[in-house]
Design goal:
The chain has a single domain, classed as Rossmann fold. It is built from 6 helices and 12 strands. The strands form 2 sheets. Strands 2-1-3-4-12-11-10-7-8 form a 9-stranded mixed beta sheet, with helices on both faces. Strand 10 and strand 11 form a beta hairpin.
């Protein structure tokens, strides 16, 4: 780049604080790969951000309720409707769907048609939650830009008892097998969301976060 050319501004990433999730570890990972994360529960800050990220561990219903009660849901919807890149991690994937079997069938944001269901495994040696490293495989959506530089059979780190079932299988970017095959990443327009935890997945997880932070 010519020395006289202005430096390219690093996009801000609103890491939405709904009260659930590894906010600091996600922000630290984004910072490590050259991102500009802002952990926030301020709707206006979300509206100003260039990209949004929703992490999360915990209960589906509590996360959705927290987003609504803190005024974060409307700001999040505005950001998504405007076409800004969205990355959802774990609960940040699940809350995009219409509803969940967890704790009384709570409603989700309904941005992705489909449902969140609990593992029902015939193999008694497989425990719920599904926890630890597992291998992914390509889904029907094809190779996603956020997976650039990541092997198709990479291993990621999981901790979950529920998984998503999209109505449209063509949006599934990655699958995994635990008793049976299920979706672990989806792509719908400017939304990309995954069931695994990139911030806990070593180099491959950092590569995904880098692609989101500086390339998407």
């Amino acid at each position: 780049m010519d020395a006289s050319s202005p430096a390219r501004a690093v996009p801000t990433i609103a890491v939405i604080d709904s009260g659930y999730g590894n906010l600091r570890s996600v922000a630290k990972a984004l910072d490590k790969v050259g991102g500009r994360p802002v952990v926030t529960a301020d709707p206006d800050e979300i509206r100003r951000a260039d990209k949004v990220l929703v992490p999360g561990q915990g209960a589906f219903s509590q996360c959705v309720e927290a987003l609504a009660s803190r005024g974060l849901e409307s700001a999040l919807r505005e950001a998504i409707d405007s076409g800004r890149p969205y990355l959802g991690l774990c609960l940040g994937l699940q809350v995009l769907f219409e509803d969940s079997e967890e704790h009384g069938n709570p409603r989700g944001l309904g941005l992705v048609p489909g449902h969140v269901v609990r593992f029902r495994l015939d193999d008694p040696t497989l425990k719920v939650p599904h926890m630890g490293w597992n291998q992914v495989s390509p889904g029907a959506a094809g190779r996603d830009p956020l997976l650039d530089g990541i092997a198709e059979d990479a291993y990621f780190y999981f901790v979950h008892s529920y998984y998503v079932v999209p109505d449209d299988p063509s949006i599934v970017a990655l699958t995994c097998r635990y008793g049976h095959e299920f979706a672990v990443a989806v792509r719908k327009d400017n939304l990309f969301a995954c069931q695994f935890h990139p911030e806990k997945s070593g180099k491959v997880g950092l590569d995904l976060l880098r692609n989101f932070a500086v390339k998407s």
